[in-house]
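Exercise (ungraded).
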Amino acid sequence: MTSAEEELKPYLVVDPHEMSERVDALRRQGKRIGLVPTMGALHLGHLSLAIAAKNECDVTIVSDFVNPTQFAPNEDFDKYPRTLDADIDLLSKIGTDFIFAPSANAMYPRGFDASVRVGGVSQLLEGRFRPTHFDGVCLVVLKLFNITRADVAYFGQKDYQQVQVVKKMVEDLNVPIEIEMLPIIRERDGLAMSSRNRYLSDEERKESLVLNKALDKAEELIKGGERESAVVYDAMRKIIEEAKDAKIDYMHIGDPKSLLEMERISGNVAVLLAVRVGETRLIDNRLIERK
Ligand code: AMP
C-alpha cells in the first residue's frame, strides 16, 4: 500500500472512551461531526450515507458494530456477516475519518443495566414481529450518539420504521442531534441492497424481486387515484405470491410519520413490506407523495 492510500484509511477505534476523547478534541476546534451507524458488511447503501456525511461534515465516523441487543435469540446474530477488513477498504475509497468498531463487551460491559424504550411507532410492524428489536436499536443508537457526540446522524430509508423510531427517541429525549434520512439504494434489477441479501440462493434472489415489483404496483395504483388500501394490498399480494418461496409477514399502508395504518388513502403515505423468501427476511418500502 502506498502512503497516499494509507493516509485515506479510516482510523480504527475500538474503545468507546477513546472515540469520545478523539471527538471531543475535534469538537473543541468547532468541527461538525457526522455519524453513520451500521452493522458492517458494507455495501453501496451504507456508502451512500458515508458519502453524504463526508460531503456535509468536517469529520465522519462510520460505526461498525453487530449489536447483540437488537437480535432475538432465534435470529441471525451468529451468522450475520462480519467483514471489518473489507469495510475498512471500502471506506478508504471515500475518505471516512474514523471507523468505530467496538466489541460487545466494550458496549455492554458486565453489570450493564440500562434500557431505552420508545412507544407508539416502535410497536407496529417490525415491532410486532420482532418485539425486542427497536429497544435494542434505540439502546445502541443512543449510546453511539453519546459516545460520538455527533452533530448529525445518517440513516437509510431502507429501514424506514427505524428512522421514525429514532426520530421519536431524539424528540422525546431531547437528544441534541439532527437525523437525516437518505434514499434506498437498489441493485440494478430493483432489489434493495442489504447485508442479508447474501443469504439468498440463486432462485431466492430471483424471487426477491417481487418486493420491489409489489411496491411499483402500489405506487402505480395510488398515484392513479386508488383510495382503498385493501385493493392495493390485493394487487401486491398477487405479485408476491408469484414467488413460490415468499411468505408475507406484513404489507402496510400508513401515515409517513406515525405509520398508523390507513384503510382509506389520503395525502402522502408510506407503503411498507416484510417478506420471508425462504429463510431470509427482507424488508422494503416506498414513500408515495400525492400532489
Ligand atoms: P445496517 O448495517 O443494516 O444496520 O444498516 C445501516 C444503515 O444503512 C441503516 O441506516 C440502513 O437503513 C442503511 N441502509 C442499509 N441498506 C441500505 C440501502 N439499500 N440503501 C440505503 N441505506 C441503506
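Further reading is listed at the end of the chapter. For now, observe: The beta strands are 11-13, 33-38, 59-64, 98-100, 152-156, 178-182, 246-254, 269-277, 280-288. The first strand starts at residue 11 and ends at 13.
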